[in-house]
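step 4 of 6: structure.
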Amino acid sequence: MTCSSTGFRALPLPIIQLSLAAVLKCGQSFRWTAYPLKLDPEDASSPTHEYRFCLRDRVVCLRQTATNILYRTVQPDPQPNANQQELRDAQTLLWLKDYFQLDVDLALLYEEWGSRDKVFLSIQDRFSGIRMLRQDPWENLISFICSSNNNISRITKMVQSLSKEYSPPLLSLPTPDGSGVKDTYHPFPPPSALAHPDVSARLRSLGFGYRAEFIHRTAKMLVETHGDSIQPQDSDEPSEQWLRTLRDISTEDARAELLKFVGVGRKVADCVLLMSLDKTDVVPVDTHVHQIAIKHYGMKGSTKGKMNMTPKLYEELCTKFVQVWGKYAGWAHSVLFTSDLKSFALHGIPQPNSPLSSPVKNRKKRSREMTDLVRILPTPPSTPSVSESATATEIACNLSPAERVKKRIRK
DNA sequence: ATTCAACCTGGT
DNA sequence: CCAGGTTGAA
């Protein structure tokens, strides 16, 4: 069934299985654009946003209702006939099932994690539908090389900027708000485009900082090892295909291959393993995850100051999380990570409490993009007003207000 | 084998 | 000083 007026098709899917608003903006992929929609007052479950993503040959547009994913395919050439459009949508549907890994039952996993872990149990209802995307390894690798010592907002700008600079525009499309403004969409550039000699200097001038060399040298390594372009203009380059083959080898072997690239350490390698190479139990440990482990999972360390992430400690944390969450530990980690993301918090969920709540002025600053989700999400009855400076995971631990404050003191 | 400063840039 | 770190040299 297709809605003839909008061109969207419907894929039945409970919201519990996938929350686009969370998943597309929680720092897995950095190339989705979200457009706010005019809400239909007649229909309480009308989509709040449209999300768009540019693939090699098409732009995929998504919306979500309580019961469906609505999807639409746009390709460059004008006026496809009904049959062509049907074929394209069928292809897009296959892509969607693969990209969102819809054969994995997320509800079942949440159940499992909740039964194993009290901390998870306490946040799962407010952060449902967070699943791992199955991304293209090449794009994912470069994106996470950009992520080192960086924040999500700037990573997003850098990845957009990469696409705009190094791959030609695929097509332009009016934004869904009816303003008449058009956006232009670029696919992610292939390795050969970033292996070109002057890329490094150009990226520097675009504000990539020291990551510019990493990106260029990684692209160059790939192209030199596996070749740049085969005959068909339209398909993947050999190095992209080779990266995909890492899905078929062991986690350890795949990680060893990834670590050969410049700008790729353990953490970035693990992100690629988890997010695009099907290694579901890999937990990328960053300072953020480290702090969560200390505060809520009894790992040693101090919440004050900055602690070095040694390889040994990294392993200990991985082991701990796999022990707690099991075979899909990496997926569970993503839920916890998202629950503490500030950038995620502003997503149009109505504030239950008055914004005039003054007291927060002297709040000890917390590192990173975290915030007090409890303030704007429905607050559980057990945790009243103190919640105004507690993160979701803090609430989870049932700490007293005093304890929370205590644990937050730094320096 | 371990520890540690330096690294680009932008935001608090 | 910190951001979803990595590198190369003590």
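step 5 of 6: annotate
 - The first helix of chain A runs from residue 20 to 23.
 - Residues 27, 144-145, 147-155, 210, 214, 262-268, 271, 284-289, 306, 309, 337, 341, 365, 367-369 of chain A lie near DNA strand C (CB under 10 Å from a C1').
step 6 of 6: archive
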